Amino acid sequence: DRFDVLIRGGTVATATEVFKADVGIKGEEIFAIGHDLGRGDREIDANGMLVLPGGVDPHVHIEQVSANGILNADSWESGTTAAAFGGTTTVIAFAAQHVGMSLARVVEDYSALARKGAIIDYCFHMILADPTEEALTLDLPKLIREGHSSIKLFMTYDRLRVSDESILDVLLVAKETGASVCFHAESSGMISWMSKHLLAAGFSQPVYHPLSHPRLAEADAIDRLVKLSALVDHPIIIFHVSTAEGAAIIRRARGDNLKIFGETCPQYLFMDAGDLQKPGLEAAKWMCSPPPRTVDDQEALWNALDRGDLQLVSSDHAPYRFDTGGKLRNGDKSNFKEIANGIPGIEARLPLLFDAMVSKGRLGLDKFVELTSTAPAKLFNLHPRKGSIAIGADADIVVWDAERRVTLTDETMHDRTGYTPYRGREVQGWPQIVLRRGKVIIQDGERHDEPGSGRFVTRSRMPESTGWLASHVAQHMASLK
Ligand code: DUC
Ligand code: ZN
Ligand code: ZN
Ligand code: ZN
């Protein structure tokens, strides 16, 4: 056989197996996996290297306008370039509605930006901040059926949060159209109440930010979501779980056969609240929400990943520059409430996780592939096209050097934030060559494709499910004596 690209001599890893094999690519897809496959028009020597499915990062903010009107630091070109340099070949970003905007228009506008700038494949979660009758009955079902099959809802932030009743409304639409719903799970009242008291007492620096997002607020919100999900009988995904209690609530719910899924992020596995002890506003570079917690929480989250209580480790890349257009929008006297929440991480995610999981031996290579690629692809209906090295899958592949040591610095990152909260950390293991749908897009530290070469991926949906109310009523009547 003659291939367009043949990757020779590497060690292929999937979420279930690790084996030596060559990988033959025709066009954009993986055509053969095995030995003595023939020749390739282009051959890549992967001797001594790992051959991994490209990372799937299902939670990134790119070229997004926050509800406070701050445009984040990355364009689709810079954000997806950074992703690719870090071994990620598919992202799910946000099409973020603000109050008063048409959801359909929002999706159109964000799609246009991605179409122009992306160098890797992408799709969107729709952030619904204004669940009007029109959005719920017209826009949302239509957009979901067009392939935008996931939604993110917020329980906190004044301009974004929706009521319990609206959460139920959205869960029902999602159930009836086969979409998934993701949540920012923190209870708003506790956060504003703590913030009010901290600021009034003069505790206004970023180091107090973690205190303003009490861990109880996360536990309370997750607990409530479990119940809202159970009432509608529709699965939910809890984003960025930061606490041991949060993970424990999800574990219990799953034990009760409820369909609750959970994500954590590198910032909760590798950072703690002590990282915000920096002079002046420097600590703003470590500020995200939920905030990093404690070393004990890190351990609990690793254990939750190990046991499968949590299934995802996304970057939650939310890049704000350290200047008046970003974190310091309210000047260099800003209190923690005035500083945008979010940190960059789209490029460092795979290297940080590989170093911890494979190089340092925690959880291993198959679990690394599962968490960084296969599980997000499956949970968000991108599998089998994305998320595995398998015949017929898109040839999104990373040739990974498991030995190479790199020290992360502000300068080594390709996004436009200008800093990384992981600076100074040395990691072992680094992506050497990255292919997106059969094309080499990263090699020798250079990017080899143009903005706009990334493509929108349509996703399948869960089965549509109707008759919800009738079945509740029938169950109730049958239970009556
Ligand atoms: N929530 C996110 O999901 N990302 C960035 C900031 C935030 O609060
Ligand atoms: Zn969030
Ligand atoms: Zn986020
Ligand atoms: Zn598979």
From TrEMBL:
Residues bearing the modification N6-carboxylysine: 152
Assigned keywords, A-Z: Hydrolase, Metal-binding, Phosphoprotein
Residues covered by the Amidohydrolase-related domain: 50-440
InterPro entries: Amidohydro-rel, Hydantoinase/dihydroPyrase, Metal-dep_hydrolase_composite, Metal_Hydrolase, Metallo-dep_Hydrolases_sf
GO molecular function: hydrolase activity, acting on carbon-nitrogen (but not peptide) bonds, in cyclic amides; metal ion binding
Protein's UniProt keywords contain Metal-binding: yes
Cofactor(s) needed: Zn(2+)
Any one GO CC term of the record: cytosol
Post-translational modification (record): Carbamylation allows a single lysine to coordinate two divalent metal cations.
PANTHER family named in the record: COLLAPSIN RESPONSE MEDIATOR PROTEIN (PTHR11647:SF1), HYDRANTOINASE/DIHYDROPYRIMIDINASE FAMILY MEMBER (PTHR11647)
Similarity-based family: Belongs to the metallo-dependent hydrolases superfamily. Hydantoinase/dihydropyrimidinase family.
Functional note: Catalyzes the stereospecific hydrolysis of the cyclic amide bond of D-hydantoin derivatives.
Name of the protein this chain belongs to: D-hydantoinase
UniProt gene name: hydA
